[in-house]
Every structure is written in C-alpha cells, then in structure tokens.
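Below is just one:
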Amino acid sequence: MALFPANGIGAASRIASLITVAFAWSISAPLAIAAESAPTGGAAVSVIHAEDKAAFTVISAKDGLINSSVSGIIQDSQGFLWFSTQGGLSRYDGVSFKTYENEPFNENSISGNLIQTMFLDSGGILWLGTYNGLNRFDTRTESIARFRYPRASPMIW
C-alpha cells in the first residue's frame, strides 16, 4: 500500500503528511541510550535500545491545528508541542489545541500570523519571527512583547 495514493492528494498535502509522519516517528519511538564499558581497553560503547512498536497520531487542521502550513515544531519543558504556522501559533497538549493569533488592535497578541521562525530559550520563552517583527512569548504566563524595526530605517545585514 502506497503511503501517498495518487488519487487527488496534492504535493503540499504529501509534504505536510510526510512531515507529520517524520515528526510522529521522532517523538513516539523512545530510545534508551546507555553507555557501557567495552570488555577490553575500557572504551565507551553506546548501546541504543528501541521499543518494538511505534504509535502514530496524525494531527491536522481537522483536529484544531490553526493552519496546515507548519514552519516549526518545538516541545517545551512542560511537554506542550508548539507549532508555528502561516495562520498563527498553536499549542498542543496531546488532546486539543490552543491557538494564538494576531488581533489588529491588541498589542498583547502576536504581531503577525505568518510565523517564519521559532526558538525556545532556556527560560521557557518562545521567540517568534514574523514579517511584522519579533515576538517574545512567555509560555508560562502567555504574555507577549513585540519588537518591531522602524520601517524608515535601512535593514542591516
């Protein structure tokens, strides 16, 4: 059976499905890595043990993902999965999604829905890069600070 049947699934859907499958595989096949001493010479040898079965869950816009065009996926220290998309930010708790979108007259919302890049720092802060500026999103308090460059200033590369 083909992973992507030829009956009407477009290239974008196939890529999104492939990313979903690859992501699901990376988080659902837990590995236990143990360093053991080799019998001779005392050199360290890494042994990888994997579970025999992998479980996959496909999540999409039908399940509440804000947009199917995902540019980044990050898991925080509390176990939430964060998805940066072309439609905003989605947080997945394993059951449902919570979404964060730009609200034009609300400075406490993300500056733009099309999130190009995302980074989680060691303090639990998600940094979101949009075409409307940089956003500092505190994952614990859900507070947002916007940083914008002046439109009249030349960009420095």
In short: The first strand starts at residue 31 and ends at 37.
